[in-house]
Amino acid sequence: MREQLSQAVLKILKSVDGLGLVTRDPQNIEDLARTNFPCVIVNATSEVREFIAGGGPDYIMSKITYELALWTQSPFVDTKRNNLFDSIETAFNADRKLGGLASDLVIREIRVEPQGSAPYSQSTLLLEVDYCFKRI
């Protein structure tokens, strides 16, 4: 289930106009071509699980957090970043259940990192996805 959720998150991000590279693989930002920017690197960072009351010991409600590292380049970093935040949020709001895999999702936090190494700027969006599954 985790892999299906990760693939669904990636698919939605790849549909966002204006994004270059969208990947789950680590990247050396300085080695990327300009055509790869802005880029998003997706990492599943944590998961909290609990048994569903009355559902028996085999059903688990889970909340998985994805860190979406958004990298942009000069010029107009702030404007690019704000427009991409809106586009990414709109894309996820259009499919809040990830095609039926999730019960809900929300972008819980947006962090703009302090001025980094010019010409690059990093922001982080924390996406929380709620889902339920039957333990095998």
Secondary-structure-derived class: alpha+beta
What gross morphology would you assign?
elongated
Biggest sheet character: 5 strands, mixed
Rg, rounded, reads 16 Å
Strand order of the largest sheet: 1-2-3-5-4
Run of helices and strands: HEEEHEE
Helix percent reads: 10-25%
First-residue to last-residue Cα separation = 12 Å
The amount of beta strand, in percent, is 35-45%
Uncertain spans: none
Overall pLDDT: 92
Number of strands: 5
Q: Helix count?
A: 2
Please provide a written account of the structure.
The chain contains two helices and five strands, in the order αβββαββ. It is of the alpha+beta class and 136 residues long. It has a five-stranded mixed beta sheet with strand order 1-2-3-5-4, covered by helices on one side.
Topology overview:
Elements: H1 2-14, E1 22-23, E2 39-51, E3 59-73, H2 77-93, E4 104-112, E5 120-134
Parallel strand pairs: 1-2
Antiparallel strand pairs: 2-3, 3-5, 4-5
Descriptors for this entry?
136 residues, five-stranded mixed β-sheet, 2 helices, 40% strand
In a few lines, what is going on in this structure?
The protein has 136 residues and is α+β, with helices and mostly antiparallel strands. Helix content is 22%, strand content 40%.
